[in-house]
Amino acid sequence: MDRQRFDVIIIGSGIGGLTCASLLAQIGKKQVLVLERHSKAGGFTHTFKRETKYEWDVGLHYVGQMQKGSETRAIFDFITAGNVKWNRMPDPYDVFVYPDFKFAARSGREHLKHDLIAQFPQEKEALGKYFDDLKKVLSWSSRFVMSRSLPAWLRFISPLLTMKNSGLASMTTGEYLQKNFRDPRLQAILVSQWGDHGLPPAMSSFIIHSIIVNHYMNGAYYPTGGARTIAESIVPLIEQAGGQVLLSHQVSEITLQNGKATGVKAFNRKSEDRAGKEFFADHIVSDAGAWITYGELLPADFRHPFIDQVKNYPTIAANVTLYVGFKEDPRQTLGIQGENYWIYGGYNHDDLYARRNELLEGKVKIAFLSFPSLKKSETQHHTAEIISFVDYEPFKPWAGQPLKKRDKDYRQLKEKISRALLDLIESHLPGFKSQVAYYELSTPLSTEHYTGFPQGNIYGIPATPQRYKQKWISLHTPVKRLYLTGSDAAAHGIAGAMMGGVLTAAAILGMPASLMKIFKTAFKYSNGLEE
Question: What is the count of structural domains for the chain?
Answer without folding.
Answer: 3
